[in-house]
Specification:
- The protein is α/β, with parallel strands linked by helices.
- It has 9 helices and 7 strands.
- A 7-stranded mixed sheet has the order 3-2-1-4-5-7-6, with helices on both faces.
- Strand 1, helix 4 and strand 2 form a beta-alpha-beta unit.
Length: 218
């Protein structure tokens, strides 16, 4: 990979982050390492065809669209007007709503599954968000979150980049994502789930250990 490629990737990430965050999320959502890991997580939940699924923090709707295409009745919710506007533009057939994860605008037991990627690790009160996710999930349904994992090191990142052959924007986006958002441990996730009455929480790693999911039955 040449010097220009090395410089262009971080520059594109920085420019989108500063001026077009929905554009950044949409671009990342198309990258194989991102879409593959998130789809793997959802597919592992083994939801039933026709299940009502709420994605909390859906951003520009890439994962929401995958779930809809998988046969689920999906609703995507995000607090950002700009994210939902981009999601509606990219995926006009989806059910999408601007809303607050700490006060979900749905009745109790409204969904068969409630999922959230990279949400509980960044909100001020993860317990409130997970409580709401639990509230709107029907008894016997599935509640699952996916977050960056503590313990995934710089050396692990280098190995992942080499194994996947990542260059340019894809490499820069993965590096930024590794260095940016807060991370969580499996015990932290298990404790969080237990605190809102969701146990046992089953944890599983994705993207060579960069991500960890916690899942429980409501």
């Amino acid at each position: 990979m040449g010097r220009l490629d090395r410089a262009a990737g971080p520059a594109k990430v920085a420019a989108l982050l500063a001026h077009d965050q929905p554009g950044l999320f949409a671009a990342i959502g198309e990258l194989d390492w991102y879409s593959g890991s998130h789809r793997h997580w959802i597919d592992d939940l083994a939801l039933r065809d026709g299940d009502r699924v709420l994605e909390v923090g859906c951003a520009t709707g890439a994962l929401t669209a995958h779930m809809a295409n998988s046969g689920y009745r999906v609703t995507g919710l995000d607090r950002s007007d700009d994210m939902i506007a981009r999601a509606r533009s990219d995926h006009p057939s989806l059910d999408l709503l601007v809303g607050d994860a700490t006060a979900l605008p749905y009745d109790d037991n409204a969904f068969d599954a409630v999922v959230a990627a990279s949400v509980v690790n960044i909100v001020p009160d993860a317990q409130v968000v997970l409580t709401e996710m639990h509230r709107v999930c029907t008894p016997g349904g599935t509640v699952s979150v996916l977050v960056p994992a503590v313990g995934f090191t710089g050396k692990d990142l280098d190995a992942l980049i080499e194994t996947r052959g990542l260059t340019g924007f894809s490499r820069a986006a993965l590096t930024k994502w590794h260095k940016g958002p807060p991370k969580m441990t499996r015990p932290q996730l298990e404790t969080l789930f237990r605190s809102v009455g969701l146990e046992p929480a089953v944890t599983r790693s994705y993207l060579d250990g960069m991500l960890v999911a916690a899942t429980a039955t409501a």
